[in-house]
Design a protein that fits this description.
This protein has about 90 residues and is an all-alpha fold. Helix content is about 55%, strand content about 0%. The relative contact order is 0.11. This is DNA binding HTH domain-containing protein.
């Protein structure tokens, strides 16, 4: 998808569509967008790494903050390959 594609979608035949300017500000047309799965994985890695840092690596505390079960949180950490960070050590995993 290129900038021209967005122009055709949001301003067909040169007509100004309400909200088109706001939407165009969301995109840097020179930057390629990530596919959905990659973007979602990047978000999960960032979110759960930050969560564990805030909880000092404590799975129980992190699960309460995120409203997940400890088992659910561990499953996500395994799926996203988050392990052995400086805040997440075997001593802190509870």
């Amino acid at each position: 998808m290129t900038a021209d594609d967005f122009t055709n979608i949001f301003m067909p035949n040169g007509n100004n569509v309400p909200g088109a300017n706001e939407i165009s500000l969301l995109f840097d047309y020179n930057e390629k967008l990530l596919d959905y799965k990659t973007a979602q994985l990047n978000f999960k890695k960032e979110y759960f790494t930050t969560l564990l840092h805030k909880a000092n690596g404590n799975i129980r505390i992190a699960s309460k903050i995120s409203n997940l079960t400890p088992q659910g949180l561990r499953k996500i950490l395994k799926q996203t390959d988050i392990n052995n960070s400086d805040k997440l050590s075997e001593d802190n995993i509870r």
